Amino acid sequence: MKRREHESVKGIRILVTLLTMLAVLVASACSDGDTEDRLSAREVCDGTLSPPASAALERLAEDEGFHESTPRTLNGVVRELSRLWKRNNPRQYAEYATLCLLEDTDSIYPALVIEFRWSDVDPRKMSPERGLKPELTYYRIGVRAESSRRYGARLEFACEGPKQPETGAKWIEAHLTVAYRHADPEAQAKDQMLILHSVSRRLAAALKCSDANLPASPDLRPISVEEVLKDVR
Known about the structure:
Blueprint: H1 2-37, H2 44-47, H3 51-61, H4 74-87, H5 90-93, E1 97-102, E2 112-119, E3 137-139, E4 144-148, E5 152-158, E6 171-178, H6 185-207, H7 225-232
Antiparallel strand pairs: 1-2, 2-6, 3-4, 4-5, 5-6
Helix pairs in contact: 3-6, 4-6
């Protein structure tokens, strides 16, 4: 009787050991697969992030691996914007072309989105009251650039070529929405603009926007609202 009990206990121990080993192997396989699916900051957004912009994304996310939902290509965005521009219809300009969409594994909302659209409104001729907020940080990049912890980042740059119609869109609006949060709001604003500038610069080159004013090393020194008004008047 005791012998049977001993063999029974021994069998249960062996079964528990085997199940434990199996659980470890499954967890390891899932972990390896998750690691393989993760992309580096240099790989996301179709490789349009410069080394400084890649470092900015890693600082924002506090991570070195990312999941990209339905990867887009730079050429695909160029084709989409070209299609919308050829229609020469202001209603069509409101449509966005998305280049980058990073997943947030802990939320149903994306962690980062970068998208572009045409605009036929000259940012340099805006009224002083239009859209200027003291909580935004402004930069002298493109035609108009702004960023904040709460609102994300927006960059407008000129894209006027010899074949563009007189009454068509001549500017591109670039928008970045991000769920990542720095402890430092100023660092948050700068890193967001650094990322958006890098992707926008690559798009401007692909669209042959010779007047975009997006240098390789952007000036990230904030300017005041008064300086913004001085530039746009």
